[in-house]
């Protein structure tokens, strides 16, 4: 029996990564040069005067149009079966983009002995082997896997989840229960986050959806009440991020398209009023809400600041001297709001103590040089598991280093789980992380799939078709 189907090959694939738009996305990770010298261990908070916000009038509420839901992969759990890698001699098992061992199916990774796979769809014969598609991974030769009865499956502690799926123009939403019952929700148009369309974003409480599109060549943000269908339109506005308190961060354009500039505002969807946060234009590319929703953290001119909704501000980490700049990227806070994690497109993960301004770093896997200064994905690719443990998706490491990565903040306890085309990593419950993958076993009619990952065992299970989950 040929060993070529399972010889050790290191990772050749990478996560689904899209170029971040000029107005930014949640997955934005802007980079500068990597710091060479340690920054100051402390930073004295500095009061930053700011004019009080001047709320704008509430746009008129409008009735949503009648829509025809688009076709697509049905929501709900997939009929996938758990298997474990069993090569018989401890070797790893090649995972391939298509069935077979020819050049076009060069391995994207090699998963270790005992690794849990979820096989989906019908088997295929190619190059003397029988193959099946492993969700989140690729095609594997069946002679090197065996059934894994008793593998953890289903919704875990949750009774239901609301998810969406996207066809490039319109998004469908549905509520899926742990018993497999699917309740369709009204479909909505594409949300705009800078250039390009991505799936609409639901508020943490599931009451609101932020989405948008061009109306008469004008980018327009729409906020919909999910229960009633009532909508408000905000011309020249782009969705940025929801806070845990269901406030919405928004970027607003002016002077477009001739001399387009943008600033940042916030709104409470129940109130519907745009509140200015800064008069500084074309800044705040990367932001993160504080857990209480009363302030947010921003990078402005290379410095990390905290800005309150009432106009107060303080500098936490000042701009570093030339040659030792911090490569700020995607910002994520601990649940208690005491530490901030910055995950740049490339370069070390940065950890900031928000009380003192002290900065530390987590070395990443050795990176492949990639041109450009920004990158990202749909949703956030970095999260805190606890006050001293982080998780991120490595996309541009050298072969053998890509996938979902766990690490302590001191760099110890590192684990790698080789999932591909990953987006929207978030802590769903203690010990459980949710993420989404893009599945396309036949290279046509792909779909998104939401997973739950047990952080203790390192094993994941598919939950339902759809992405951007709101768990119940």
Task: Give a structural overview.
The protein has a domain at 4-10 and 79-147: SH3 type barrels (Roll), CATH 2.30.30. Strand 16 and strand 17 (231-235) form a beta hairpin. The strands form ten sheets. Strands 1-17-16-15-14 form a five-stranded antiparallel β-sheet, with no helix packed on it. It is globular. The model is unreliable at 6-53, 63-70, 192-198 and 372-377 (pLDDT under 50). It has strands spanning 61-62, 81-85, 93-95, 109-111, 116-126, 129-134, 138-141, 145-147, 160-166, 170-177, 182-189, 191-192, 197-198, 201-202, 208-215, 218-225, 231-235, 237-242, 248-254, 261-267, 275-276, 287-289, 295-300, 303-308, 313-317, 330-333, 339-343, 349-353, 359-362, 382-386, 389-394, 403-408, 415-417, 422-429, 432-439, 447-454, 459-465, 467-471. With 472 residues, it is mainly beta. It is built from no helices and 38 strands.
List key phrases describing it.
mainly beta; SH3 type barrels; 472 residues; 5-stranded antiparallel beta sheet
Secondary structure layout:
Blueprint lengths: L60 E2 L18 E5 L7 E3 L13 E3 L4 E11 L2 E6 L3 E4 L3 E3 L12 E7 L3 E8 L4 E8 L1 E2 L4 E2 L2 E2 L5 E8 L2 E8 L5 E5 L1 E6 L5 E7 L6 E7 L7 E2 L10 E3 L5 E6 L2 E6 L4 E5 L12 E4 L5 E5 L5 E5 L5 E4 L19 E5 L2 E6 L8 E6 L6 E3 L4 E8 L2 E8 L7 E8 L4 E7 L1 E5 L1
Antiparallel strand pairs: 1-17, 2-5, 2-8, 3-4, 5-6, 6-7, 9-10, 9-38, 10-11, 12-13, 14-15, 15-16, 16-17, 18-19, 19-20, 20-21, 22-23, 23-24, 24-25, 26-27, 27-28, 28-29, 30-31, 31-32, 32-33, 34-35, 35-36, 36-37
